[in-house]
Specification:
9 helices; Four Helix Bundle (Hemerythrin (Met), subunit A)
């Protein structure tokens, strides 16, 4: 016999409510939240689409185009080798996959894609014809000079930094290439990208690249110099007074 306070209807309602709560309470572990924001996702999409377009171009015979444009092919081969060597020479601390660094890397690649698109587009649809051979040769020379400067400075920083500096990115180096300018790696990278518009004789792309590159590198240099002053104090301030950022006696 059931106790007098027991009500079948209230018991069923209570059991049903408990069941519904168990089924519909969201579980945090089943729906992880992505740490990448929309901008990074958009950058990933653009890079992916660019890679797909490049694959299509290969299928449509871009190899024949490169065979007939040896200087363009030489530039791209040298650029690929430069990016690989630069990656191999980097300190492990610079290769992190934390969201902030990943976001910066993805966003920094977008202007490069615009550069590699802009020069051939300008030549094909504005001027037509082929660029002068001497311009292509000049562009290749500028690129190779930039590669030599950037890799030489990175080798000096990674392998010949003063003893005792655990973070070579923050080592105060004042000899070799750093004797004349504070940011030889950025100078080399700037020269590398400036060489590409010469391959197609694209002055508009060259001017845009110079302006955007100036703003981009100037911003990075200011941030790094502030960090170096915070770490090395008067020693780095004195070093700044006797050197220029990227071009001796000019900038």
């Amino acid at each position: 016999m059931l106790p007098p306070w027991f009500s079948p209807s209230s018991f069923l309602l209570s059991a049903l409510e408990d069941n519904l709560k168990t089924q519909f309470v969201p579980q945090a572990t089943t729906m992880p939240v992505s740490s990448r924001d929309f901008t990074v996702r958009l950058a990933e999409l653009i890079v992916q689409l660019s890679a797909i377009i490049g694959a299509i171009a290969l299928g449509l015979g871009i190899s024949a185009y490169l065979s007939s444009h040896r200087r363009v092919m030489a530039y791209l081969i040298a650029y690929a080798a430069f990016r690989l060597a630069d990656l191999l020479l980097r300190d492990r601390a610079e290769l992190g996959m934390d969201p902030v660094r990943f976001s910066r890397r993805m966003i920094y690649e977008l202007p490069l894609l615009a550069l590699f698109f802009g020069a051939p587009f300008e030549r094909t649809f504005i001027y037509g014809g082929e660029a002068s051979r001497w311009l292509g040769t000049l562009g290749l020379i500028i690129e190779l000079a930039g590669i030599w400067l950037a890799l030489g400075a990175r080798i000096q920083r990674e392998y010949f930094a003063p003893a005792g500096d655990h973070d070579r990115r923050r080592a105060l180096i004042q000899n070799g290439l750093y004797r004349f300018i504070r940011h030889p790696i950025y100078t080399g990278e700037f020269l590398v990208i400036l060489g590409w518009p010469f391959e197609y004789g694209a002055p508009v792309t060259l001017v845009v690249t110079a302006v955007v590159g100036f703003v981009f590198f100037n911003r990075r240099m200011r941030r790094e110099e502030a960090e170096m002053i915070a770490e090395h104090g008067d020693a780095y301030a004195a070093y700044m007074r006797v050197t220029d950022r990227m071009i001796p006696n000019l900038w």
